[in-house]
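Protein Record: Sequence and Backbone Structure Tokens
======================================================
Scope: a single protein chain, as residues and as a discrete description of its fold.
Tokens: labelled as protein backbone structure tokens, with as many entries as the chain has residues.
Position: the record begins directly beneath this header, with no further notes in between.
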Amino acid sequence: MNRRLRWSAIYRLYEGIEPLLNYSVAKEDKPRGQRVVVLAPHIDDETIGCGGVMAKHVALGDRVAVLTFADCTPERIAEGQAAGRILGVQRQDFLPYPSKTLMDQADLPGILATFLAEEQPDVVYTPGLFDRHVDHLSVNLLLARHSRASRAGYMVYSYEVWNTLTPNVAIDISAHAGQKREALACFTSQNAANNWLEAGMALSRYRGITTGAGEYAEAFLRMSASRHVELMEHAFKRI
């Protein structure tokens, strides 16, 4: 994959998602299913985008497993593990790849397939389709390739980090906003450069206000695995 994002593909992608969008955002207590996988390009993406929902899943008895792909230095792994303990995550795997090289890793599709086979998820959280980072796009492409090959039946929920979405579902995380804030505070290496604690909580407050889901909410683009594949194929012509 060309590491430069092709904006013509992004425009095609938006055209593809338009049929999924509603004038008012639907509300869910949480996605159906008890087995959850979160795909994080980098350590902290998962907490920014869906940390409150992760904590909510755990509180309701669901299993949450996180696979992180890039820039997993010892310092950042320690931060991610601390955040995961706060959120109650049952499994965290950290891969050794440098940022911006994910599509060059021949063994990565097999690693992702093994992780998903072991976890058997009902729901997969993945970065937003418009996130302006090549690693976020790469994770979506890797997931779409796996879904197409395996004819996966899980639901895909795209979460927000670098770019906001035009969401079609929102989830109230007000009861878990404190956990999300505490988990975000663990990422001292990243917060030193950019205050992701305040950015993540402000985004959740904004989503609470604009969707009416609760005082704090997280918003997603919800779709079937097959629809996620179609969108990737529509945008990039082949995956």
